[in-house]
Amino acid sequence: MNTIEQAAEDGKRVHFIGIGGVMMNALAQELARRGAVVTGTDRDDSNTVKMLRGKGIPVHIGHDPGAVEGADLVVRNAAIHDDSPDIVRARELGIPVLERPDVLGQIMSEYGRTIAVAGTHGKSTTSGMIAHVLYAGGLDPTAFIGAVLPSIGGVYRLGRNDWFVAEACEYCESFLYLRPHTALILNVEADHLDYYSGIGQIVDAFEKFALNTPEDGGTVVINAENENAAAGAARLAGKRRVVTFGLDAGDYRASELTFERGCGRFALTRGGEVLCRVALSVPGRHNVCDAAAAAAALIEEGVPAETVAAGLSAFPGMERRFQRVGTWNGADVFDDYAHHPDELAATLATAKSLGYGRVVCLFQPHTYSRTAALLPQFASALAGCDLAVLTDIYSAREVNTLGISAADVARLVPGAVYCPTLDESLAFVERELRPGDVFLTCGAGNVNTVAKRLIRAASPEGSDGK
Prior knowledge:
The chain is α/β, with parallel strands linked by helices. It folds into 3 domains: 4-98, 3-Layer(aba) Sandwich (Rossmann fold), CATH 3.40.50.720; 111-313, UDP-N-acetylmuramoyl-L-alanine:D-glutamate ligase; 323-462, Protein-Tyrosine Phosphatase, Chain A, CATH 3.90.190. 33% of the residues lie in helices and 25% in strands. The chain is built from 16 helices and 21 strands. It has a 10-stranded mixed β-sheet, with helices on both faces. The protein has a 6-stranded mixed β-sheet with strand order 16-17-21-18-19-20, sandwiched between helices. Strands 3-2-1-4-5 form a 5-stranded parallel β-sheet, with helices on both faces. Helix 6 packs across helix 9 and helix 7 crosses helix 8 (227-235). The model is unreliable at 461-466 (pLDDT under 50).
């Protein structure tokens, strides 16, 4: 039994290893809703784990081989390797082990109007934009997104028609389990070099993802202004229908671009014709590019341009994407998930554009392999702030066999300060921040807890944090 549909229909037990992950918890909830008996394990206790327990899904903390005993199916994410004790035990017992994207792909196959959003960065925001447009336009989508979208109240929403939106992760070629009607490729850059041998293999993987769209009737939407993505588009010529987007190039363009308080205003054009006008409520040039991508995919799928414009203009942003947390000593405090140099540079450029006195960034690198492979690029990105504070690397799925430290990044950034722990980082920024600054915590790990702790320490009237 390797299908989630059969497991749900028969009320079988499905065990999720790493159930607290963003996509894993969404899939677990969906299988429970369908009738499967869902259990899970996770490395750490968290608000997500508490939420799942509150919904009747038992979660054990730690990798316990005994937790898989009695399960009919096991689902794991890419961070759980074959030598994990619970996976070893599942294999011994002959329990089928499914990959997380396999489950997502099986669910996607039940829908007809499917959009999968891929790219090195921008996936969560763009898939969130698409889901929000469909939801606000009354099209009632099902969505699986990599960050919380306020308008749907989480990372997962069950719709009641044929629309399906999913974030497509390239790590370990996970997105190759998905077969969308429209594949959206935002950008293709070097990342996840603990798995990929280099940019050539990454480009090949994105091409395979694009070829998972139907040969007859499918569409691949690609960023015309990203070098590697554009090269991939050329390789798809004659194999799939390709549509491009960009700010100054592509079939769909964000033309007549201006900014008001950092937020983009543009005319969406196709072949020089103005289709609609969009006034974003989220700041940054990168969000304009994401909006153009979302608009291109939606219009190609038949959504009216007016519906797209209204939804994008009302898009509220995503949790942990330049999210305002509150104020400290007259400084505005934001949190952002940026963990790739391109994302970090875009986030800091957005902060710079808002006219603050100083941009102060606390950056927590994510994984040893990424930090080592992209060390000069991280240093270059952090040069875009007035004061860079580095705290130690969030290990995630890795062991530090490279001898790399966040101090290695700090040494390459003029004026940077290295604070090994989050506690030391908090103490430093409490002393350092002053009125007129903007302070950002950046990283995909737990660096956001510093922003939250900082705001909790502020006076009630100076905080709008949660």
